[in-house]
Amino acid sequence: MESIVEKLQLKDIDKSTWKKYRFDQIAKNISERVEPTTTDLEIYVGLEHIDSESIHIKRYGKREDVNGTKLRCYPGDIIFGRRRAYQRKAAIVEFDGFCSAHSLVLRANPDVISSSLFPFFLHSDTFMHLAVDISVGSLSPTINWGDLKKQEFLIPPKDQQEQIAELLWAGDEMLENQIKMHNNILTLYERTLTDFFEQASEFPLKVLGDLVQIRSGDSPSMFNNIEESEGVPFLKVKDLNETIKFQNYAKEWVTAIPNKLIPKGSVIFPKRGEAIMTNKVRIVVNDCHVDTNTMALSVKDVSQLNNEFLYYFLYFKKLYKIADVAQIPQINNIHINPYPINLPPLEIQVDFVNKLNRVLGILEVVKSNHYTSKDLQKSLINKIF
């Protein structure tokens, strides 16, 4: 992506020959109506099928999934989410289909802007910020075509557009390749987990209650908030993020109470409420306190059970499957103590953990590169428009 930016020489862009056009000169609003009960079209695209800040549609629904009047779309059109425009949903159609009436179906005017450049223009801050500004309604702000069509935008001459579009598409291809790589690595990670634990019956069968100490959290009211430079983090379920191992994660810091302290290396997870269903199992790398909605498991004997192996085991088993869901989902000692685990020798545990950690390390590098590339793409689009 850096080389793409250099090729375009963003600092040297001369916009003196660019012209302003009303949006209805830039694009046409395709308002052809479709009734799902009578159309032969099979593919339906709702706003839920479009990812924010992506120009690609990667999933869709079926005709029988919906009812009510919808909008017809054709290959090359752009489906733009006119409801809640701040979600930045605008994606290219590559099929004959129909879409949500909460969308606008836009078609580039080739006399003003090339169809290859148009989707990137729609994802520029210039366009998206204005789209938000002209939205009406408080609960579900929506753009009216009558307001959008009158807005004016600066567009480069046609002889510059193809070069710009070529560079932007090269960047998009790189982003898509990074996404594919990420998904392939994630598949490898999940397959490695599954293969190991589904074939673990050869190892001795134990129960978690013999291997871990179960610790529950406490109400924040029993602690005194202090400056961040002192004390220990106080962790709430909402503080859990995507990182398996994390530190300095809590927004609140408290005075440590020794007999209540969750020791570093403990595996924690939500024990109550809908958060259980998120399967957010984590390892703490600091001593900490946790709230009443969190359970912590501390390994009793590290020569028997590796704490990261415990993490991977709990993550794979998806603890919400054992939760009591009669009313509010809950996981208690009665669920954890008798829970069976086939326990391999420690060296096998460590080897397995190291293998998965290497896979996740690669995954983190790919994710980091993707975020960097995405930021560069945004910067590039906004420098242009």
Brief summary of the model shown:
By secondary structure, the protein is of the alpha+beta class.
Layout of secondary structure:
Blueprint: H1 2-8, E1 19-22, H2 23-26, E2 27-30, E3 33-34, E4 43-45, E5 61-62, E6 70-73, E7 78-81, E8 90-92, E9 97-99, E10 103-108, H3 118-122, H4 125-133, H5 145-148, E11 152-155, H6 158-198, E12 205-207, E13 212-216, E14 232-235, E15 245-246, E16 252-254, E17 267-270, E18 282-284, E19 289-290, E20 294-299, H7 307-317, H8 333-336, E21 340-342, H9 346-384
Parallel strand pairs: 4-9, 14-19, 15-18
Antiparallel strand pairs: 1-11, 2-10, 3-6, 4-5, 6-9, 7-8, 7-10, 12-21, 13-20, 14-16, 17-18, 17-20
Helix pairs in contact: 1-6, 6-9
Structural write-up:
The chain is of the alpha+beta class. The chain has three domains: 17-155, DNA methylase specificity domains (Adenine-n6-DNA-methyltransferase TaqI, Chain A, domain 2, Alpha-Beta Complex); 158-199 and 344-385, Bipartite methylase S protein (Helix Hairpins, Orthogonal Bundle); 204-343, DNA methylase specificity domains (Adenine-n6-DNA-methyltransferase TaqI, Chain A, domain 2). Helices cover 32% and strands 19% of the residues. The chain contains nine helices and 21 strands. A hairpin with an 8-residue loop joins strand 7 and strand 8. The radius of gyration is 27 Å and the shape is elongated. The mean pLDDT is 88.
